[in-house]
Amino acid sequence: MTLSFASPSEPSVSLHVIAQSDLDDWLSGQPDQVVSWVRASGFTGAMGQVVLIPGPEGVLTHALAGYGEPSSRARKRFPLAAAAEALPEGVYTIASGVPDDVLDTECLGWLLTGYAFDHYASQSPAKARLTAPEGIDAARIEVLANAEALTRDLVNTPTSDMGPEQLQAAAEALGRKFGASCEVICGEALLDQNFPMIHAVGRAAAQQPRLIDMNWGGTGPKLTLVGKGVCFDTGGLNLKPGNSMALMKKDMGGAANVLGLARMIMALKLPVQLRVLIPAVENSVAGNAFRPGDILTSRKGLTVEINNTDAEGRLVLADALALAAEGEPDLVISMATLTGAARVAVGADLAPFYTDDDNAAKALARAGQKAADPVWRMPFHEPYEAMIEPGVADLDNAPSGGFAGSITAALFLRRFAGDSAYMHFDIYSWQSSKAPGRSKGGLGQGPRALLAALPEILDL
Hints:
By secondary structure, this protein is of the alpha/beta class. The protein contains 16 helices and 19 strands. The chain folds into 2 domains: 13-136, 3-Layer(aba) Sandwich (Leucine Aminopeptidase, subunit E, domain 1), CATH 3.40.220.10; 144-457, Zn peptidases (Aminopeptidase, 3-Layer(aba) Sandwich), CATH 3.40.630.10. The two termini are 31 Å apart. The mean pLDDT is 96.
């Protein structure tokens, strides 16, 4: 599926986007028959309302799309998408009503209404297409939309068709498209090349664990993205209850999001040396599964006491982060569907992130607001370091007590990131119910904010 603007040469219908408070002013300049038609339709300018206005010969001449009020728009990520989903099939050109400062975002939301996950059954995405308004970077918006579609597809695909092998294939296909190299360390080779925790977590699964290593770009700052690729998480021997296992196909959402971000970076040719590391595993139950009470030695040499096999994501990320640090990058970013504690803290709609760099945090917050990709900074609270130090090993993968679970996981990961600038995202990557421009299912969280902030963070 490719999400794109309609060709400007296609015949289109003029679309006036009308806020509720602006309807009377707009109607005051219209012919009586248009006023009567709009009033009779019950159109008030409420968000998501549409009305089609025919000309004297009955031919459609223009349409109105309700834009609501500021208070209602503040509750939606892509307000115009609500109307785009209600319009009938056709091509539309925005004639008025969308403020310049949100035009790019509203156009992105419109393109995303065309997304549907139709791999297994036919779906009905919105059919209304949009011509690119003057003044926007249409090519960039199409890149953002298609990167989001990639992330959603990867997360939505069930593990029967998106295990470690298929995740590797997806990364390799992306690399081929943009001329990136891709190397993979698989199975027993993980032990030979010192990735013991990736191997331990994934060794019980039918598909062998692996580390995917993609590289692109030869000049500029070194940027390394690390994405959690746990293609299914049973919880291991600390088996999850059934209702907690239902969405575990999305436990590779970190990998899906870094691949989406990598697609944006490569398509837009950002001047960076990009590396993407994905530990791809399935956390399964078998006679050779790792156990509570085991002590694992990581790539970095730190020992880790396993107090819960369901805290496996930080283990595979730790080995990948240690490798990332060896390359001495300018910035390391990890993304993972890591803790339920993050959901308790900020809910499903915000992408919580950790960084020690105040300026980077401010840049990311501004970028997220503008890109309709909201993020929220969480603290690397150092007094909690003692919570991840069990005494019998260097680190504890699942501290007892139940408090500060997202923070302690982030502190655990930071121990492996070396001296490079480090940023960690603890995301949900799932839309629980349909919303304008956001289909139910897999979701990108953080990549657009990061893309917009990277030029400032890396001084590009």
